[in-house]
Amino acid sequence: MKRTTLSDYPCSIARALDAVGEWWTPLVLRDIAYGVRRFREIQEDLGISANVLADRLETLVREGIIEPRVYQERPQRSEYVLTRKGAELIPALLALMRWGDRYGWDEHDGPVRVVHEACGEEVRVEIRCTCCGREVQPGELHARPGHARVKPPAPGEPGYLSGRRLYAPDGAALAR
Fold first, then answer.
1. Does residue 7 lie within any of the structural domains?
2. Range of 160's domain?
3. Three-state secondary structure call for residue 118
4. What angle do CA 54, 58, 64 make, to 5 degrees?
């Protein structure tokens, strides 16, 4: 069953979820990033049904997040690789992984460490101010209208309630 599209919602998170928010999709992306790139390998690794995996891969290809690469001509077989657009999702996957480490495991330490190849030290996703360079905590953040939309959604439209907060004089305070 297909879900309702979020592509018309006045929210970048909704539009991102329209591309990568289906059940299993982040794990498919994780596998491809790890080098598990062939259909049967992904299916075996995740224990996912063939029709669900085919649907997820089709969506990711259509969205330009992954691309098939032929590795065998007869019969033709492809593997999937991240595009540049797909590789730019890695920080989001790392943020989800870190959250899962913190709240999904005893001792707040998950089963995977991601390290910088050059020095071997663990990496982390941070929120930094582009002006002062300081790491910013979620409680210090405010969301304000961007340039893509000039007016808030009308009553009854998706995003109306959050838009009212966003378009307030100080914007919407996050994580308070």
1. no
2. 142-173
3. coil
4. 145
CA distances (Å), 52 to each of 31, 42, 47, in order?
A: 15, 12, 11
pLDDT tens-digit profile of 100-137? 999 999 888 899 999 999 999 999 999 999 999 999 99
Contact predicate 66/81, CB 8 Å: yes
User: C-alpha angle 132/137/139, rounded to 5°?
Assistant: 120
Same domain as 82, residue 17: yes
pTM for the model stands at 0.88
Question: What 3-state DSSP class applies to 149?
Answer: coil
Alpha-carbon dihedral sign for residues 60, 95, 84, 44: negative
Q: Is residue 83 in a domain?
A: yes
17-47 pLDDT, tens digit each: 999 999 999 999 999 999 999 999 999 999 9
Residue with tokens 């582009």: 130
